[in-house]
Protein 1
Amino acid sequence: MQWRKNRVAIGAVVFVALLATTVWAVTTRDRPAEDAVVELPTISIDEDAIVAMEITRPGEAGAETVVLEKVEDEWRVTSPLDADADANNVSSALNRLSALTPIQIVATREENHARLEVDDAQAVTVIARMGDETPPLDVRIGKYANGVTMIRIDDRPEVFGVKGSARFPFDRDLKNWRDRRVTQEEAKTVDRVTFESENGDFAFTMEDGAWVPEGKYRRIEDFDGKQVAGLVSTAARLTASGFASEDVSNARAGLNEPKGTVTLYLSTDTPEGSDAEEGGEPDEGAQSIVVLEVGDEDEESSEYYLQRKGDPTIYLVSSYLANRLQPGPEAFERPPEPAAPPTPQALPGQMPGQPNQLPPEVMQQLQQQLQQQQR
């Protein structure tokens, strides 16, 4: 019966022992074994030496892998299709790889991979290959927390931290790895433009530094050449929001008979002796002409198909851009003058035009009320 008298003391001892064991387990779960030595690895990559990147990112429909390769000093998407790559996004990824330097050891055991999002199901995996005999870099990029991003290198179980957000430059879908620039012209090099759509046909020429409508097209009341300049700038530097699906043909996109057409005539490439130089109709086959064609609306995205003549790529643009490329006559009219701000009304006893001011006795009453509320 003696143990019953001491059961409270025995229970306290057992509780303290369990508590100590739990604390030890929590504080040592991420520590390496005493006889193990983990050193921070050194990643030294010259971004100019990288010739290919294979990037796999998780997604709701499964993992998506994009392969980028340098072809004749130009980066291209080579898988799952062949297309020009977005130079800015590729440059951002290369710069981040060259600065991927571990600064701390975050964890050493495999059971922490899922929590730190560096497991195969959650991490963005990047395999960078060099042009020489340097082994490829295989890195899994995971969670960002407390100013560092968690990464795993090759098949090592350790999780390292690198300074800053390292995941964003690689966590992009296929659309954002492709070059979405449709046109890259300087608006100042355009000296003639035409618009053709169900909203009307218009043609404008640059004369003495100002846009003027051509005589054979209908006159526009209260014409404003600045509106033409704005539309020319839009068409000359056009970036798409995305791309049509691979199974969308020109016929399905409504591009065999476009709903709208914009033609830019560039002065810099006008051949000597051409019709354009002599004031006639420019040669449609000349390199100085850029033709944009607007097709049907994509029912899934509510965006519109667009194609640059001579390029098989079918882009998607917003309805706002599609409408700007199919202007009506009102698009070239001078916008109404903004309404003048209302004139303040004078209080009784004030001269017109004087700023509104409260009488001194009213101000004194307000101050007294505020002082009473503060008390």
Protein 2
Amino acid sequence: MTQFAKRFSDPTNAARSRDRSTADLAAAAVRQTNARDCLMILLNAEEPLTVADLTSRTGLSRPTVDAVLHDLIAAGPVRTAEPSDSCTPGRPARRFVADPSTTLVAGVEVGAHVVRCTVSDAGGSIVSRVCRRLDGDAATDRLEVITELVTSAVEHRSTGTAGHRPHPRPAAVGLAVPGILDHDQRLVRSGQLPEWTGVRPGAELSRRLGCAVLVETDLKLAAYAEHHLGDIAGNLIYLHLGRRIAVALMVDDQILQGRNRMAGELGAQRGMRWTPSYDDGGGLCWSTGREARPLFDRAAAGDHRALAEIDAFCEQLAPRLATLALTLDPELVIVGGGLSRAGRTLLGPLARQLDRLLDLPVRPELTTSRLTSDASVTGALAYAFERGSEQIFGLPAVPPPWRRLRTAPETDPRTQADRAGTQ
């Protein structure tokens, strides 16, 4: 836990003791709310702010803002700024800025063949991205690989940027895993990581990294990221099309989990196959083999046989997608995964097949993923902010810094190309 977190979490812990009164609990909650409001304004400000600025923007009294700033400065995430050049006579007003560089947060995506890590500061500015490819050997200690990758990403930030203090570990890590998690964060099924069945990766990594590790499935985190970074949609279907096919659902702005976290896990239905060419172990197979890119390249060039094969694939896929659309009534259906890079070559026939099946005056919009490569790892980073707010800031419910994550560039295009059709 950071010094910032300790400063603000200690009153909360004390408030939980038996001898604390209701008034004490209320006062601690108000203090946290005031601190959160001031911190969020400073984190999002484009320039230093004065006490008067914060008083005006928060509606708090000047003494309250002064007290909050005193705590924030002592804890580390806020500092006083250099006096501004002013022609006004007299002593210049004190100005304050957030200093998010004192804390780092990480998002990690793990798969059968790759582990990716993105690190940001507490304000959401991306400071490091690393990726390690794996040979898919079940004997590979992925927990150790993740530990080394996160550590190297944090050390890269600490030693590679002048003027920043060392960061021995991040304050919180979000972890995206392929498969099904139970309520104890145990991986109960994973076609990509069968050796992790029964493992609680978050608990293991928390022990190794010495920080909070918040775990969610990769597709749910991809849907979560797309929901917040793309077009506004309370309900959406995230359809992953790559070597595997799977879905995740957002309902009323929340990841749909269900009673046992099984909502949307259509692959758990015995005998269910998305298409005749799909098997849960190997994934999709095309006339070009397991790699879809050659087929879609030919289709984009106008090859009639390739176009017919893609149209047949969409015709097979559309009935299950139509059933989900009629059940959820979403505003958006987002197609992610490697095949989403095909754009209209895929969306065109898929939209036609859905239109043929849906006898509705209004149909959900069909679009491709905004984060073709980074959806899951970006979701994992944001999830670390959301679920690790107290570890990062010592304050509950500080929202993820979506504004900065929205403008962060994606991974190098060469890395994206390497992954096309493989996930």
Protein 3
Amino acid sequence: QGGINAAVHLSDHTFAVSRYDFGDNFLLPSVAIDLSAISFSGDWEANGYPELSSDTKVIVKKARIGERNIILYASDTKSKQIVIYAYDEMNGELLGTHYFGETYPYEIGEFAQTSDGGLIILGKTYVAGRFPRLSFFKLTKEEVASLIW
């Protein structure tokens, strides 16, 4: 009936959270959670993301891009692509979106910021629609910077 897909601690009682409810996905770049109380994630106001697959895996991480602290969400879309959303950690503003994959269906596995300031995305693709293979996407430091401007 709903719950949290992913969360990352920002500061004090503030978290970046991904929640789901009846197949819909919601991204909350900043939500205050009272850790000494019981709360229902459905009560947290958020915009839905209808392009995301129902009850899909969502990964949320903090990153430093240029001089900014960024929250990155990665997930799968209904059109079988991998998507990354970038939010400003300070004000929760959506800064950019990037899609990966076109020809074959793709699913997110994991992503990480690289030592050279880029981003690597690991996923799974299906060749001819049924043969699973690993997929890798690499964004350079410049491509990552363009994601947020």
Protein 4
Amino acid sequence: MYTALRTWAEENFHPVPDPKTSLKIAEDWGLDTELVRGKWYIVKRELPKNLYLDGNRYRYKMPDGSRPSMGSDKEEAIQAAIELNTKLYGANPLVAKVMGSKSLRHYGDQWLARRKPNVKASTYKQSLSQVRLVCEGLPGPIFSISQSQIADFLDSQTDNQYAKLRKVLIELYRIAVAHGDIAENIPEKTLPAPSFVRQRPRMSEGDFQAIYARAPEWLQIAMDFALLSLQREGDILAKRHDEIVNGQMPVIQQKTGKAIMIDVGPQLMEVVRRSMRTPVLSNYIVHKRNQMHPMETFVKQKHLQKVFLKVAREALGKQDIPTFHEIRSLGITMYRNQGLIAQDLAGHEDEKTTDGYDQEIRFTEARTL
């Protein structure tokens, strides 16, 4: 049943508000409104919201404005409309009141509490950010979140974020299923993320030499140490002279926790000796004088990255600058070109990971008849 907005306003208000104000009041009151041939009407319906009778057929108004046919059977159309309203617009408030209103935040807090004692502070901080993103992107009671909403949310992310946030959602839903709050883990039904290949500027030997020529002595030592040891920034900055005993240097990698005993070769040992000959007295292999605190010689990772980037931009004169981490890639290629195995030194679990750092295409030999 349709009542003209003007008629409704005249029956309820004096003086009668203008059409724009009347429409806002009607919507604030929760009344259904519909624009028909340029005029607004109050709709008093026996049908669920978004379901309309068009001649002898029922149609459903989709969020994009399209109106697909729902057939001519009234009961079937009503049942389908109720289900669509729940999937597309969330649960009815009365249903939420009966079933409870636990949101993703509830399960996110539980997941984070379990995760915190078992991961590094930086990893926990990243998890905290990811939970915040999924909670903001998928608000409301968990039982009212549809698969299409989850899929749309994930599709709006980058490929890398898609994979990470999908994994978080699966974990949160697993907790909800375990508590009996929902019946199934809906995020598991979504498509896995597309294969993600990190695109980053590689460092050539020429780039290395150009940066090296402009670098201060402490940064040159860091670059040589990284090239020859294949260790990550945090690991080389933490190494001390007194850790090298009988030509061997133990490394417990900060990222993976993998323990490696490095047999220090003559070239790497010469880098260590150069470090000991600098005017700055320090037990750290990579070190420099801290101007604000002269007694401190430890180089922080952020400072290394900042100085390296500045020197690299000056040396290469371009925007797409390889990072310090790319020295690891250059070193792996160098070792393989000399017929040496780089996997153990790099601390990779499998050869495939090492392949991802190698800058050269390695052909497999195959013979013909």
